[in-house]
Amino acid sequence: MEERCLDKEDETAPTMEEAVKEARRCMNCGCFAVEPSDITPVLVALGATIHTTERAYTAQAFCCRKLKIDEVLAKGELATKVEIPVLEGAVMHYDKFRLREAVDWAIVSLASAFAKEEGRLTAAKLVLGGVAPIPVELHEVQGYLMGRTPDAETAKAAGELAVKECNALWRNRYKVHEVKVLVEKAVLRMQG
């Protein structure tokens, strides 16, 4: 305590060897290239509208077309309001896979909204987060689910369809499994 001051660190930095060893522990979640916000897949799944000082954007256009916000907004344009429609009769969830509570960002997430009538799915919106620099809407899975009964067979097929064209990075292939699990759980949740 007596040695602490503003111009002196409490501890010395690790050696280069220690730093390399520590860095190798990383599971390569892809965080360097992933939209860190939990809210973006949710806004896309719910069909939100983002209003700015100049115009209104769908959440899809605002969050999923460009990698940088300054490529979406004009110079001086500011977001002023987010409008989220009420989806009557829909069941909505946000699920995320993370390794530690202390690390709050999602390694993989799924925002889902479903509607069901007479035991069959009549609407499905599934949007992944944490798998690409922008949220990824699962269009093919959504189409597959229409009119189907949310049972184990349908859930498994939806999970497989969700990852059929995945191109995982070298050390994050485990994300493919997590996507399948999240999609399957979301569909199975609609059984009741």
Give a summary of the structure in a few sentences.
This protein is an alpha+beta fold and 192 residues long. The protein has helices at residues 16-23, 39-45, 59-64, 139-145, 152-162, 174-188, and strands spanning 49-52, 56-58, 79-83, 91-97, 108-117, 120-129, 136-137.
How would you characterize this protein structure?
The chain is an alpha+beta fold. The chain contains 6 helices and 7 strands, in the order ααββαβββββααα. It has a 4-stranded antiparallel β-sheet, with helices on both faces. A hairpin with a 6-residue loop joins strand 6 and strand 7.
Please outline the helices and strands.
Layout: H1 16-23, H2 39-45, E1 49-52, E2 56-58, H3 59-64, E3 79-83, E4 91-97, E5 108-117, E6 120-129, E7 136-137, H4 139-145, H5 152-162, H6 174-188
Antiparallel strand pairs: 1-2, 1-3, 4-5, 5-6, 6-7
Helix pairs in contact: 4-5, 5-6
